[in-house]
Each structure stands twice: as C-alpha cells, then as structure tokens.
Design goal:
This protein is of the alpha/beta class. It has 3 domains: 192 residues, Ribonuclease H-like superfamily/Ribonuclease H (Nucleotidyltransferase, domain 5), CATH 3.30.420.10; 91 residues, HRDC domain (DNA polymerase, domain 1); 73 residues, DNA polymerase, domain 1, CATH 1.10.150. Helix content is 51%, strand content 9%. The chain contains 16 helices and 6 strands. Strand 5, helix 3 and strand 6 form a beta-alpha-beta unit. Helix 3 crosses helix 8, helix 9 crosses helix 13 and helix 14 packs antiparallel against helix 16.
C-alpha cells in the first residue's frame, strides 16, 4: 500500500491550521546543514501526527527557512502533554535549541530504547525499521543539500519516511522495555539527553582527544588545553567550525613550541597556512592566561598500566552487560570508563541506574588503580 503524501508547510498560520488540539504524541525529525558553521543550520522539521493507525500518520514538512516558522513550532515543542518520538535525537536537539530556543519534552528516543531493550546499540533508523517492522526504508538522500529550495520530490519523500514509522517503533519498543522492567532506566536516559542539550558547555578536557597531547610535557598539555578551550568559545561566538578557528596541528605546534611573547607567536603562525593570524592577539591572551581548573586536568593515558586498567574495567562492564542482556556500549562506553580512571566521581551518564549496576564490580578495580597511582608517586 503506497504511503500517504506529506504536506508542505511554510507559514506560521498554515502550521497552526494543521495542528490538532492536543495530540498525545508526535514524531519529530530534523534536516540541517553543519559543514561551514559551528551551530546546525536548521532547514526542515518533519512532524508526524498519530491518527489511529501507527503505521500511517499524517505528516507535515515544515520549512524552517521561512520567517516565523521556528517560533511557531515552540508551543508544540514545549507542550509537556505531548510525547515527542525521535530517533537518535542528540544532534536534532542541538539544532532545535539553537533555532527555536526550545527542546522537545518529554522525549522518547527510539535508538535509546532499542539499546536498553537489547535490540542493539546505536542502531540506525533504517535498520531498526527493517528489524522490528520488516519495512525497507530508502536512505538515498542522506547527503542532500537541505538548504536549497525547492526541495526535490525524492528529498520530500525521504524526509517524510524519517518520521513515518516512529509510532510503530515506539509501540514495539515500549512493550519490550516494560517487559524487561527498564522503563525508568529509559526515562532517565532521555531526560539526561535533554539536560545535556540544554546545558551544553563544551568538552571540559578537549586536549585528551588529540593524539598529539600524548607527546607534550605537563606544561605543554596545559597550553594546549587553554588553546582548545579558547577555540571552542570562539567557534561558538563566530559560528564557525572549531578547526576553521584553530587547526589541530597549529594548536599542537603552539603548545609544543611555547612562544615567549606575542611576536614569537606571530612568527610561528606565519609558518602555517591555516593559522589564524588575524586572531594572534586573542590566541596569545588565551595561551598566556591560566585556567582556574587546569591543575585538575588529567594527563593523556599512554602507559601500559593505563591500558591494562581500562581493559579490566571494560571486561567487568562486558560481563555485567552479558548478565543484563545489554548490547556492547550501552552500559558504559570506553570514553565513560576513561573519565572514571581520570578520577571523576561517576559523572553524567554513569550516574543513576548505571552506577547502581556497575559500582559493585568497578569500585574495587578503581580503588586498585588509585592505590597503584599513589605508590608510583
């Protein structure tokens, strides 16, 4: 049976005319571009309305490039009586918060639900629809230019398919979560996802993700941390990609060379075509200004002892995941475990139900790491 066509909406008044009084749930997805900016440029919002048949919702395609459209969507996003069903929503949340100043609450993320229900970790929408519903979804327009107008028929059809099956997925996954008694875990994870989007302050220790940091001494790592924190703030203010503000190679070179003054910094910048020469004064100020928390920064993990400690934690997590029937990566990722090794006290996503499940196994291992570190000092 062919899918019903979606309705294109490009004025606030038209959007209002299409809204039911208070839907119990809506399906949501977004299309945006983020290649030349720090913030996502929201182009399209797809909204599905449940009209009795979860497999055949009514779908609106909202043109977010038209004046007033972001603001017109806000009341629906903020209506807590309406559940917003989305798939892998983290980047969509950033796009909606930046464009609309609002987040879709409460949230039902079908990718999160699939992980906790034991279906799979990080499962894409296309595969999840195929696995749970037996329906093939065309993903041919994944790399489309969503900022152009008019959108092609193929783009419109693709966009509609991204919300067409959300209600059927929600129903199937809800039954699995309830059968496993994991509804509270799921609601906690979705609430945390919203809170992360609402209070995004950037990565605290961005130098840890750069391999070049491993080859710097402690002072060099602090210089790199200062530069990367400044880069993130500058990228947000100027709405440019981080590496367009300051390339990783240039940041590492500055941290390694430790220029003695601004003139030395400017000479160093001249050697790199991608260097931000016009921002030399700001780069120097960032380089020369200690951060209030830089003394707390963990060092990059490079030793064999670090690798063995991480492996012991991963093995313990894998064992507990197997007992719970959870796919790899759902209970605790490598990055989350590294934060524990860095001395953070069950931060963010590792708090709540994950801490309850993992602390009995991981606490003794973390204590051994701490004792080994104290012995080596």
């Amino acid at each position: 049976m062919p899918s019903s066509p979606a309705t294109w909406v490009n004025t606030p008044a038209e959007l209002l005319s299409h809204l039911p009084t208070t839907p119990a749930r809506i399906g949501l997805d977004t299309e945006f571009i983020r290649e030349r900016t720090y913030w996502p440029q929201l182009s399209l919002v797809q909204v599905a309305f449940d009209e009795g048949d979860p497999g055949a919702p009514r779908i609106l395609l909202l043109d977010m490039l038209q004046p007033g459209m972001p603001g017109a969507l806000v009341p629906l996003l903020q209506d807590r009586a309406v559940t917003k069903v989305m798939h892998s929503a983290s980047e969509d949340l950033v796009a909606l918060r930046h464009a609309c100043g609002a987040l879709p609450e409460p949230l039902f993320d079908t990718q999160v639900a699939a992980g906790l229900a034991g279906v799979g970790a990080g499962v894409g929408y296309q595969r999840l629809v195929q696995d749970l519903l037996g329906i093939a979804v065309d993903k041919g327009e994944t790399r489309s230019d969503w900022m152009k107008r008019p959108l092609s028929p193929a783009q419109l059809a693709y966009a509609a398919e991204d919300v067409r099956h959300l209600f059927a997925l929600q129903d199937a996954l809800s039954a699995k979560l309830d059968a496993l008694g994991r509804r509270a875990w799921f609601e906690e994870d979705c609430a945390r996802m919203l809170e992360t989007a609402r209070n995004d302050q950037g990565e605290r220790w961005p130098h840890l993700s750069l391999r070049s940091a491993q080859f710097l001494d402690e002072a060099g790592q602090r210089r790199l941390l200062r530069l990367l924190r400044w880069r993130d703030a500058q990228a947000r203010r100027s709405d440019r990609p981080r590496t367009w503000v300051l390339d990783n190679e240039v940041a590492a070179a500055i941290a390694r060379e430790a220029p003695a003054d601004r003139e030395a910094l400017e000479r160093l910048l001249q050697a790199y075509p991608k260097a931000p020469r016009k921002l030399a004064a700001q780069v120097w100020e960032a380089l020369a200004t200690p951060l209030p928390d830089e003394d707390q920064a963990p060092a990059p993990r490079t030793s064999e002892r670090d690798r063995k400690a991480l492996r012991r934690l991963q093995d313990a997590v894998a064992e507990r995941s197997g007992e719970l029937g959870l796919p790899d990566g759902v209970l605790a990722s490598r990055r989350w475990l590294e934060s524990l090794l860095d001395g953070e006290d069950w931060p963010g996503v590792l708090s709540g139900w994950r801490r309850t499940q993992l602390e009995p196994a991981l606490a003794p291992l973390l204590e051994q790491v701490g004792e080994a570190g104290a012995t080596s000092v």
